[in-house]
Request: fold
Amino acid sequence: MTQDPYIALAGVRKGYRIGGEAIPIFSALDLAIPRGDFVAVMGPSGSGKSTLLNMLAGIDVPDAGSLSIGNHRLDRMGEAARSTWRAHNMGIVFQFYNLLPMLNAAENVELPLLLKPLSARERRVRVGKMLDLVGLSGREKQYPSMMSGGQQQRVGIARAIVSDPGLLLCDEPTGDLDRKSADEVLEMLSFLNRQLEKTIVMVTHDPQAARSAKRTLHLDKGQFVERAAS
Amino acid sequence: MTFLDLAWKNAWRKPLRTVLLMVCVAVAFLIYGLTASFLAGSQGASAASEDIIGVMSAAGRTQALPRAHLSRIAAEPGVAAVGYMARVRGFVDVEKNVIAVSAVEPQALMAVNGKELGLTPALVEALGKGRDRVLVGRALAEAQGWRVGQRIAVTAFQIARQDGGQDWRFEIAGIFEGESASTDTYFTIARYDYVNAARARGKDTVDAFIVRPRDGVKAGALATRIDALFANSAAPTRSQSEKQFLEAFLRQYADIGLIVDLVTGAAFITLLLIVVNTMVFAVRERPFEIGVLKTLGISRLRIMALVLSETLLVFIIGGSVGLALAKLGTVLAGPTLGLVFSPLVLVKAAAIVLALGLATGLLPAINAMRIPIIIAFRTR
Reply:
């Protein structure tokens, strides 16, 4: 018996209009990612990596075709429903961390928990655990401006996993980091995939980053070309 | 952390801007608090009674009426009690220190207006113990620093004594408090028999009769009937409620209510424009962060509520400071200006704070709510 894929795109079509000109991105994209997978998506600029990630995040929707994650049809949901779904099922790690500058590390991590029915104490405990997990214990009160890029990205990862989502979407998570910090972040993502069984989809330009994934998908001209991870 | 904490931290991301906005709000509500206190106070007409009728000469307020009208007014069905008064305006020590003395028949005044003025049987009895005795209102006593037992001299502007002098000497027999803070107590109550006997002209005349209608009798209808009694006499009357009288009196100078509305309206419209403009820019500065919040799953409505909370915080803090200063101002101004920062003023101000806070936050909140995440991320 084959297991249903956790993420499934079938015949997805997506394009944009810029100045009256139609620009197709995907004409009939298919994709299946099982639960617990760690997939790197690579491809040249303009190949549709960000569009794919936006659709997986429910930020954008396909023009046609189906997109389901964990048996939920995102393409059929309205914006409010996708927003709620995102809050409970997905964490996003950004290239530029995207921490709110007026909040300290603990408060940034706590943000997604404001949508959960948790007491202040429960939230505090969970935030503490996440910061501990990413190696930032004792830095709860530090503001983003006081942290290095690597530390900020670790706060970003803690924020992405604090609500215990099944899916982690990473948009160039090492793109703004030096090699050492990048390796630490990749090691952490591998740990989250292996130990906590998070399904991870990571868009990257960095071949070394892609090697942390279980497999790499190459996106070119709106189609995937799969190769085994080396 | 709560969403309110988040709004609070957002509001303080540029402290100088936030403080300046709060100062704007505080100044507007200081103006509102003081002007509303003026209207609610004894200088305004809002505290005046609509039930007590003043009967004055139809020829004008400065014209006297014969005291003989008293018996006909008292005999009119619907009149519960009637008193009368002669007004002596003058000054104490220096000409700009103007005070008013109402010469009355004490028992009649007690029956008509005693409750509103805060007169007690003991005060009326004290007044009755000497012809030159007076009762002084609390506001006037505090402003002049007068005490019970003190002797005072009022130099009348117009009412001369039989001996040719203008100085009227009185002994303070007591101080009346007024029923509430809004009651005008910036005057003195003297005995009519003393003033009437000592004045050179205008004997047995009064400046006004004061009438309290019986329960269930409409003041307006009774006023019309009283005026009808004297319509064909040598001294026709014009009767009005105390409130009507005071409003008409204030309108001699200007429509105070309209002026106050215009001043506060201008202040609030200016405030609205300043805060809306500032908040629109404040939100435009951070679409990227709003995009981040949306990707975290924070709904459009919560984003809207977040921005509205920011403006509400600015208004609540600024408004509270402004109203506290207005309250302080009414206390420091003392009784002379008759400002009363009543609970009603506070409730109205609180409602305006909320309404303006929401109104000014609405446009930036809708902008924040509507910005698509993809567009928000492009602004980085």
Notes: Residues 59-235 of chain B form one domain. Residues 137 and 185 of chain B are 4 Å apart (CA to CA).
